[in-house]
Design goal:
The chain is 14% helix and 39% strand. It is mainly beta. The chain has one domain: M1 Pyruvate Kinase, Domain 3 (Beta Barrel), CATH 2.40.33. The chain has a 7-stranded mixed β-barrel. Helix 1 links the parallel strand 5 and strand 6. The longest helix is centred in the middle third of the chain and has 11 residues. The two termini are 13 Å apart.
């Protein structure tokens, strides 16, 4: 079953705000225009359903942009997906591991950092293995 790309966020500077975009370009170093590029954490991804569970758990009502992930997905479970390949539109991203929550999540909502430590609540990080253009509402599915 396929999911979809709900949101795209690009961080223009280290610790800078996350700007929403309707479309973006992925290349061999990650998300074009993003402050952090290269390495095994080129792209950060968040499952919207997991985020909503976390908000219920800590009694907060933050949007998924508060997580500071680049891509917000619906209909895709990221838990334990290390080594899997995700197709977003015509692009492919290999999941390299869990995106661990930092202390900034505690500043966003009390108890959030701890709550995010289970079931890949912080989302996943990965690297681009086939680039191109992605857009909000693109189909997302596992291809392995």
């Amino acid at each position: 079953m396929a999911g979809r790309l709900e949101s795209i966020f690009i961080k223009r500077a280290h610790r800078g705000r996350m700007d929403p975009h309707a479309e973006a370009t992925l290349d061999a170093r990650g998300l074009v225009g993003n402050a952090h590029r290269g390495g095994s954490r080129q792209i950060t991804l968040l499952a919207r359903e997991r985020w909503d569970e976390l908000m219920d758990e800590v009694g907060a009502s933050l949007g998924p942009d508060a997580r500071r992930a680049n891509l917000v997905l619906t209909g895709i479970d990221l838990e334990s997906s290390r080594g899997r390949t995700l197709r977003i539109g015509s692009c492919r991203i290999r999941i390299n591991g869990e995106a661990r929550p930092c202390e900034h999540m505690e500043d966003a909502a009390p108890g959030l950092q701890h709550a995010m430590e289970s079931a890949w609540g912080g989302g996943a990080c990965g690297e681009v293995i086939e680039g191109g253009t992605i857009a909000v509402n693109d189909e997302v599915e596992w291809v392995d």
